[in-house]
Amino acid sequence: SYILAIESSCDDTACAVLKNDEVLSNVVAGQEIHEKYGGVVPELASRAHQSHIVPVVDQALKEAGIKKEELSAISFTRGPGLMGSLLVGTSFAKSLALALDIPLIDVHHMHGHILAHFIDSNDQPKPEFPFLAVTISGGHTQIVKVTDFHEMEVIGTTQDDAIGEAFDKSGKILGLGYPAGPQIDKLAKSGDPLKFPFPVPKAPELNYSFSGFKTAVLYFIQREVKKQPDFIEKNLNDICASIQHTLIKILFQKIEKAILQTGIKTVAIGGGVSANSGIRSKLHSYKNHGWSVFIPPFEYTTDNAAMIGISAYYKFKAGYSVGMETTAAPRIQM
Ligand code: ATP
Ligand code: FE
């Protein structure tokens, strides 16, 4: 089967074409416009999606070498995300499915981040069920027990900020541009992770909390800058390394706990923050503890449509589709 997938939940307009579980094309158009505002501006995001969607879909079909008429189904991200952004992808997908008279398949954005591991890439091994998916992104920080392609249970989640926000907001305090996560990652490489000890916030059970961390970084920086105005410039690498080190510590504490509680030792990370090199190498190191670990290829970590396509493929195989009455769902639960 050939499935076309559209992802437009936040600020990236993305389209992919899959042949079964193989990705033929994976096109992403970002939106630089938000950089100068230090975050995504919803109104500007939906407008940019409007102008990107047609060329992005055309490009994906062209790169795949597929004509619209050859497609077997159209899939799209139904939610969660920004209403105005989701509407663009949802409406476009519906019109396309209607015009081509082929099945329409909705996908949960976070299922996409999780099922990205099942994209066929260079015969890499795929996680076996059941496994623990740890979704770390700009809007989520969750530990999910995955028993099947369509059966997922959230067993831990953040009570406030997502880990991606912790990276981005800390970076903003340091004067780094948006999104700051990738820059902190880069700067941390030549810094001392133990130079500045930041607190590890408490949260019950398998849940997370990051808002206290961000505040601690803010107060610490304000205090030090008062004493020494060029504190940030002088210590940027060490500050970034220390921030990253603490966020990794917070993240893995609860993953370890989840493994003890469930007895499941297969861990697959997903979402934009799983691009982080510190998190990737830390996860690798746990192989020595008998964990099976899975890290998605770099291009499938941040928002992309291939992950929506692979999720749709498994729904398509199960004979699932939705009707034209389907609407965008900004706050849909897992
Ligand atoms: P969600 O998937 O929860 O709806 P989103 O789609 O906005 O949120 P993603 O695109 O999956 O989020 O991830 C974006 C986040 O990933 C940003 O917070 C960004 O800073 C972070 N990020 C990307 N690369 C890195 C990196 N190398 N290190 C740390 N964080 C990173
Ligand atoms: Fe995402």
TrEMBL record:
Residues involved in Fe cation binding: H109, H113, D303
Keywords for the protein's UniProt record, in alphabetical order: Acyltransferase, Cytoplasm, Iron, Metal-binding, Transferase, tRNA processing
Domain of life: Bacteria
Main location: cytoplasm
CDD domains hit by this protein: ASKHA_NBD_TsaD_bac (cd24133)
Residues the entry annotates as binding substrate: T135, I136, S137, G138, G139, D168, G181, D185, N276
Cofactor binding description: Binds 1 Fe(2+) ion per subunit.
Enzyme class at the top of the EC tree: transferase
Compartment(s) of residence: Cytoplasm
Recorded catalytic activity of this chain's protein: L-threonylcarbamoyladenylate + adenosine(37) in tRNA = N(6)-L-threonylcarbamoyladenosine(37) in tRNA + AMP + H(+)
Cofactors: Fe(2+)
Tagged with keyword Transferase: yes
Stretches assigned to the Gcp-like domain: 22-309
EC number: 2.3.1.234
Database matches in SUPFAM superfamilies: Actin-like ATPase domain
Family listed: Belongs to the KAE1 / TsaD family.
Function: Required for the formation of a threonylcarbamoyl group on adenosine at position 37 (t(6)A37) in tRNAs that read codons beginning with adenine. Is involved in the transfer of the threonylcarbamoyl moiety of threonylcarbamoyl-AMP (TC-AMP) to the N6 group of A37, together with TsaE and TsaB. TsaD likely plays a direct catalytic role in this reaction.
Protein name: tRNA N6-adenosine threonylcarbamoyltransferase
